[in-house]
Amino acid sequence: MNFSFSEEQEMVRDFVERFVREKYEPDMRRKIESSEQGFSSENWNMFAELGWLGLPFPEEDGGFGGGAVETMIIFEAFGRGPVLEPFLATAILAGSALRQAASAAQKEALIPAIIDGSIQLALAYCEPDGRYNPANVSTMATETGEGFVIDGDKSVVLNGPAADRLIISARTHGQQHDPDGVTLFLVDASAKGVSRQNYPTQDGFRASEIVFDEVAVSADAVIGELHGGYAILNNAIEEAILASCAEAVGAMEMLYKATVEFSRTRKQFGVPIGSFQVLQHRMSEMFMEYEQTKSLLYRAAMAMDAGADDASRTISALKIQVGNAGRKVGQEAIQIHGGMGMTEEMYVGYYFKRLTMINSLFGNIDYHLRRFTGA
Amino acid sequence: MDISFNPEEIAFQKEVRTFFETEYPADILEKSANRQSLSSDDMVRSQKALHAQGWIAPNWPEEYGGTGWSPSQKYIFETEMARAGAPRLVPFGLGMVGPIIYTFGNDEQKKRFLPGILESDIWWCQGFSEPGAGSDLASLSTKAERDGDHYIVTGQKTWTTFAQYADWIFCLVRTSTEEKKQLGISFLLIDMKSPGITVNPIVTIDGGREVNDVHFENVRVPVDNLIGEEGAGWTYAKMLLTHERTGIAGVARSKEQIETIRAIATKTDNGFGEMMTDDADFMRRLALVEIELMALEFTELRTLAAVQTGKAPGPESSILKIKGTEIQQLITELFVELAGNYATPYLPEFYVPGSNVDSVGPGWAADATSKYFNFRKTSIYGGSNEIQKNIIAKAVLGL
Ligand SMILES: Cc1cc2nc3c(=O)[nH]c(=O)nc-3n(C[C@H](O)[C@H](O)[C@H](O)COP(=O)(O)OP(=O)(O)OC[C@H]3O[C@@H](n4cnc5c(N)ncnc54)[C@H](O)[C@@H]3O)c2cc1C
Question: Could you point out which of A28, B34, B42, B360 has its C-alpha 20 to 30 Å from the C-alpha of B128?
């Protein structure tokens, strides 16, 4: 075992951390969040120029062949923003589906364009009644002579508004909850019959409800095997969990540190509130939660890179830990900041909101407890 | 001891229920049911309906406009009001300054201010907290200097809820720096239209606009607006704060929310073809909150039974504040959980009546997350929950 980063990994970390420090001061973030698009094209182009968007893709596809550890490094730093550019949706969620299963032609058409920043993607897999179960698919893809016709609704599609291409899950076989019979399709976001209702998310990102109304696609729009989309989705979601949990660790670090700092300077009853033992204990707990989560994050990233048998189970463990710890650290940070913690102006709210949303994305604590216990 | 209602109480329950069904403004109930935000006008109208019925101030002594109800009747009233989905009363006049005025004010002040509170014609706000004086309220520094028949008030209040609507503000001000800090505090009523007052909004993490900074610059306030004695404001404030704490508990409302969650859970898919009510983990957590609430309901009834109408409860009120807010916060979290992926969209326009923004997902989910964020305030305001525990340790346990 080895717990230290390589030289290249340290370089990436330093770069991304510097980017967040310089481009994500609270005022800058507020400006990006309140812009129409919800992210900065300038930042996105910089990600492309610096090669970050290529990091998760294999070298043979024009990427830099990074693994889970590299993803973790980028996203832990992103969590300190929290960064709003749709890296997760494009390069991790949708990117993972391409990495796993796209044909050579599909890869060639998409991956270089993702890496150079010219296109964005979204993975549309949640459905109105599906909750967290990616097998719960009632969007139908019906085979025709030339290809397929897709009908159905997808909900809370992250980066839906900016996506040029959508990867969507649709049922080609079986019943609504069957893992078998789900197929992934590549659909142009501007295709006839695709309509989007766009909105901001609670934590400042953008998402869409997307309706597919008799959307015709050709046979080569299928990604991977026909009926074989579920396994691909599962892996893509696991990669997204690792990334967003790394973000959560970055956010928790910001929160515990900001809270300690605040408690040193805020005085009541003639003393810094940090001198009250009851608050000291709670900040100690915030710190412990952060450390414990970071440990599980490392464990999960290393298990993933090693292709370990228990990688999926470790990912669920991590997601549960992030849910519990994120809730605790977030709530305590607000509480210890008192009224100040409740204000939009005080940036602790950004991290608290991001942590809350990370808990409810990709399966919450209950969902992953089920998965962890094999129930 | 007897847990059941007697025939008169059952009749009273029916009367209250009928009132909310037939006489209370139906459009306001509908807005509340649809989770739309209420305008200040809606709030006033809903209170006027209660006043017309003589039910606006159940906790006031009868001589000042109270109802003369027994604790059971008050309990029934609260329960029915929450059941109907009626909005809570704005607490600043009826729950806070009103009791201070009828307890410590002079006859002139009672005549001048109590009717406007009962009729909801005058909107009050609470000017206690300052940037430097939150938990340590007694260190407040907004000063009021005597100048003939006036006080000249200069300083800043903050976190002032609904100051944007307020006609009057009740303030704690420093009239002396000579003695122990608690002894130099006075309780002053100030007309918000006075020259020298400015109100600036503070946006909260849920994007809401309910709190404000209020600045006072050489504001002239007639000495007639002083409540009780100069320098005795701290004693009055302490009594007001116990009223405030008791009011924050919100037991009846939480009960209603638990029922709402249960009803939604029976209709919400858990993703695996069952309903959320089939989800043992979720239902167990809902049960644990409900059990806490069952206990708190009786803690409240026991506490209030021991208090005479119109008087403030003792330090036991801290238990109501802590437990009541913890339960409210847990309830907001259960809504977020129930919403699943639909906890994610942020659609503030959706709550604005008449807006044409469609909800994303079920309507009940639209404000789940914003409410969770917003309700973090409940363990901070009204004296933070840490401060309440300090009070219990000191005043109840004698530590
Ligand atoms: C939404 C909202 C609405 C409000 N509305 C009003 C209003 O209308 N009028 C009004 O006057 N005020 C209002 N308040 C103010 C509220 O009463 C104060 O926020 C509260 O008293 C806490 O003060 P503070 O924010 O300065 O926090 P601080 O006092 O700075 O406290 C910071 C943290 O330190 C803890 N702490 C402080 N002292 C101790 C101690 N001795 N032991 C252990 N822990 C301690 C606190 O519990 C808190 O966690 C409102 C606040 C909010 C958030």
Answer: B42
